[in-house]
Prior knowledge:
This protein is of the alpha/beta class and 370 residues long. Helices cover 43% and strands 15% of the residues. It has helices at 5-9, 42-55, 78-95, 97-100, 108-117, 122-126, 128-140, 153-161, 164-176, 213-216, 223-232, 239-246, 259-267, 279-284, 292-301, 322-332, 359-369, and strands at residues 31-35, 65-69, 145-149, 186-191, 206-208, 221-222, 249-251, 254-257, 306-311, 313-315, 336-342, 349-355. Strand 7 and strand 8 (254-257) form a beta hairpin. Mean pLDDT is 88; it is low at 1-11.
Amino acid sequence: MPTNESSTISGETNVFPDKTSALRLFFKGFITPMACPEDFGKSLALSRAKERILQGDGTRPGRPVLYLDLSSVHPRTYRAFLGSMKAIIAELYRHHEAECLPLCRFYEPKLYSGIISGEADKLDYMDAIDFLARLMHKRYGSTPVVIIDGADTPLLYALSGGYYEKAHAFISHMYGTMNDNRDIKKCLMSGTTYMNHCSLHGGHYLMDNCLPSSLRYSLGFSVRETVDILASYGRADKLDEVLFWYGGYLTEEGEKVCPGSLAAYIRGGFTPGCYRKNTFLDIYGRQAYAGEKFHGWLTQLLTGPLQIIIPRNICYGDLATDEGMLSVMCHYGYLDIRSAVPADDFFYELKCDIAVPNQEARSLIHDLIR
């Protein structure tokens, strides 16, 4: 997963369009999943959304926000996973200590301090968001909005590390405490892969392959926006090169360009190349799950589009299949689902037209199967 998307494009905010408003497309339910490919500026948009929620606008007052960034949780062992989760939750508690600790009563001060110091029980960390949301509600008189960036990251790395069931038990309990929680206004759970909305309410989490392209690429730059950005640098002549290397993400509104790659291309002196980290390779390894069919698909996709039948929903614990790995690559933006129709009467499978969107993605795939 991207380690710090905010730094990827924040330096170009004077000429890059603000895509924060696109997040409104996802704020529809109490617990709302959202997803977009790597380096599409998701973390930057979420951090800006956090500030706007805190400040409010002319029609609505500000509201407290609990912001949890799990995009850096990618340890190789369960012990390291627990350590990372405890450290991130402790930092969240430390950030709100001055406003929330004075509200604790009876055993709660010891619990709050124990979470910060690392002395609390594992179950206390699993219940940590619920407890902190209750304190924030009491402190401000309004329920907080919870934003979890990289909500899928721990599950993806746990699968490759061989401790998925243990990590799932921790994550599902922590996320489950937010279901219909009266101390929480809304919860936005973002990731690179799209979590099925229904699975967030219990059971095993499912990766959903049905997210419309208009949502999946909502943070991407349109061709018109890309032209304006290049023109601001006096390099509008580079449009075709940019679309060849970093575009190709097709939506009902037209083609989209990867924002992070465009920013790296500009900082690199308008020199085309593969600027994205091969996160898929970093998580799963070159041969970890790549079966013969999976390699065959990728080899064919390098020569042109391919029609493949994949499951509509896949449990994160079952991603270690050819269809699962191909689906992950589509969510990461290494591949693009150009169209998808039901392949059976029960909508269990999708018949998808899949293509490699651009030259940068082609380079990432070459790196994987070489």
